[in-house]
Amino acid sequence: MTDPPQEPPRDPSPDAATEPRDDALNPAQRETLDRLTAPRDTWPEYDQGLRRRLREHLEGDLSEVAVALSTDRPMRVSKHALAGVHGCEARWLADDDDPSFEASPATVRGSVAHKAIELGINRREPAAPAELVDIALDRLTESDAWMADWLRTCDEDDRAEVRAAAIAKVQSFEDVWPPLKPAWRPVTELPVRADLLGGRIVLAGRVDLGLGRPDGGRAGRVVVDFKTGGFAVHHRDDGRFYALVEALRIGVPPRAVATSYLDSGAIHVDPVDEDVLHAAAARVVDGVTRIVALRERQLEPERRPSAVCRWCRLLDTCDVGRAHLADA
Ligand code: SF4
């Protein structure tokens, strides 16, 4: 991060009426700021060759598998695809074969909350969580987002359930995040993308929140992923994936990647260095190699049970998953 991390809310404010005062922050908001800030002279500095080294790592290790791909139909690799294939391969393959997805209050509420938080960060006039959620619901209903049809046709009680859950999550966000100063350069839904091997493989995603910016070769940005559920091991890998794509995109990775758990108020902050980026690249190589082999039916999918068995479409016929849930 740049200016915000350097001297957060103690900075003289150009507009004291709209800037948070130190004593206006609750302890959780104060802690969030403290976890994300760092003096500029501690920001890691990267040389011009970083982007080339990461690209050589990825393209060298993926060149063989990319023979099966074309630029007409590139393989798009997201954090979701990587988390899926590094989790239970059988579940990932079943979802990949049939990507149809049934929306429900449980799956829609997180997206509505994300949209409302995004609106709240970017509005010039503050608004209460309920107002933000109502605007988010209207915007998403009129959009071409995946849940738009469901929002247009769901019954009043399902809509009320989504609204209530989303309001609670926006309130949770406001409880643990300080109001974000414009000087901190907050950016929501920041698109990141890197094309590999002439565009045959595309690493892409959207960062929930970016704060700060690089200063030359010095890493000054922090990227934040908001989670509306509980902790999962792959959440840290999600952040590192974004760091890798950002490094491939502009040659300087974020200084740190953070996961903000809205329900608990916890925030996990992981520093980034070149070793972390090469580890993320190795995970991409492994994931892409597995995805290609599974799609080509060259690999028998492994069943790796976990808490997600509960929502798996194969559960009825999966002895491994049912045994795991019975034990749990
Ligand atoms: S039920 Fe669990 S172990 Fe079985 S396929 Fe689904 S996620 Fe994998």
Write up what this structure looks like.
The structure is a single chain. Helix content is 46%, strand content 12%. A hairpin with a 4-residue loop joins strand 2 and strand 3 (201-211). It has a domain at 105-176. The model is unreliable at 1-19 (pLDDT under 50). It has helices spanning 3-6, 27-36, 50-62, 79-86, 89-97, 105-122, 129-141, 148-153, 156-176, 234-250, 274-295, 319-327, and strands spanning 75-77, 187-196, 201-211, 222-227, 256-261, 267-271. Strands 1, 2, 3, 4, 5 and 6 form a 6-stranded mixed beta sheet that branches. Helix 10 crosses helix 11. The chain is of the alpha/beta class. The chain is globular, with a radius of gyration of 21 Å. Residues 88, 90-91, 303, 305, 308-309, 312, 314-315, 318, 320-321 line the site of iron/sulfur cluster (SF4).
Shape summary: globular
User: What class, by secondary structure content?
Assistant: alpha/beta
Number of helices, counting only DSSP H or I runs of 4 residues or more:
12
Q: List SSEs in N-to-C order.
A: HHHEHHHHHHEEEHEEHH
Number of strands: 6
Question: How would you sum up this structure in a few lines?
Answer:
With 328 residues, the chain is of the alpha/beta class. The chain has helices at residues 3-6, 27-36, 50-62, 79-86, 89-97, 105-122, 129-141, 148-153, 156-176, 234-250, 274-295, 319-327; strands at residues 75-77, 187-196, 201-211, 222-227, 256-261, 267-271.
